[in-house]
Amino acid sequence: MLQQIRKLFKQIGSSADVETHSTVDMRMISAALLVEVATVDQELEQRERDTLTQLLRQHYALDADSANVIIDEAIAKRDQSTSLFEFTQAVNDQFSERDKYLLVLQMWQVAFSDNVIEAFEEYLIRRVSELIYLPHGLFTKARAEARDMRKD
Q: What's the Cα-to-Cα distance from 28 to each of 37, 121, 124, 132, rounded to whole Å?
């Protein structure tokens, strides 16, 4: 996963079309962090996969195939990542506070998609929130909003 992010950063630096690559980069960063939440328990249930697809489609205006390609790449690269730092550093460099809030909200939506919040999911979301300097009030607001949005 980290190699894919590095590759995308190199593309950004060597291209005149920064906007296009920046968007792709944001999609991959978001997908990588969402996949981490979905697979923190070493399983990817269909409800979690569906939630990942839906969130990427809605947030980035993607078709289902494009969202699934991004998810598949994030899943395939998951085992190669060694830490959250590069992802969270990229979030800090590129995301506004609103974007950070939306990312954490989406992470909570993935966690709530199976109606069970695992301790590892909560820890991961809390850790990412801390690393991206999201105020605690927004962290708890995102959790409450995601809980209220879930489908039982």
A: 14, 20, 18, 16
